[in-house]
Write a structure and sequence with these properties.
The chain has 103 residues and is an all-alpha fold. Among the domains are: 30 residues; 33 residues, no CATH class. The protein is built from 5 helices and no strands. The protein is elongated and about 55 Å long.
Length: 103
């Protein structure tokens, strides 16, 4: 089986991931998230805490992608760890729920 051609550069992939993570929801939802918080320091700490959690998640995905250097992403990781049936379920959930929610 032929290997996939790697034509995307670091900037291309970084831009795609950043656009997927941020999306347009940050401009609308930030006000709703900040409304119930009365203290400015608490709001800043909440944003920092969320950023740290997102960074830890990114580190986990980076570790998995270096451990399994194949195409497939999350489907591949679930298949390798939990087996084919959970990966199959994730694939369909990703198609029907996760990816269509951003449209």
């Amino acid at each position: 089986m032929a290997s996939a051609k790697r034509v995307l550069k670091t900037f291309d992939v970084t831009s795609m991931v950043t656009g997927n993570m941020i999306g347009s929801g940050i401009f609308l939802l930030a006000g709703y998230a900040a409304a119930p918080i009365s203290n400015d320091i608490t709001l800043i700490l909440a944003w920092i805490g969320g950023g740290i959690m997102a960074l830890l998640g990114a580190f986990c995905i980076a570790e998995l992608s270096t451990r399994f250097p194949e195409t497939g992403g999350d489907f591949l990781y679930i298949h390798k760890v939990f087996g084919p049936f959970p990966a199959f379920l994730f694939g369909w959930m990703s198609l029907a729920i996760f990816e269509t929610g951003s449209v």
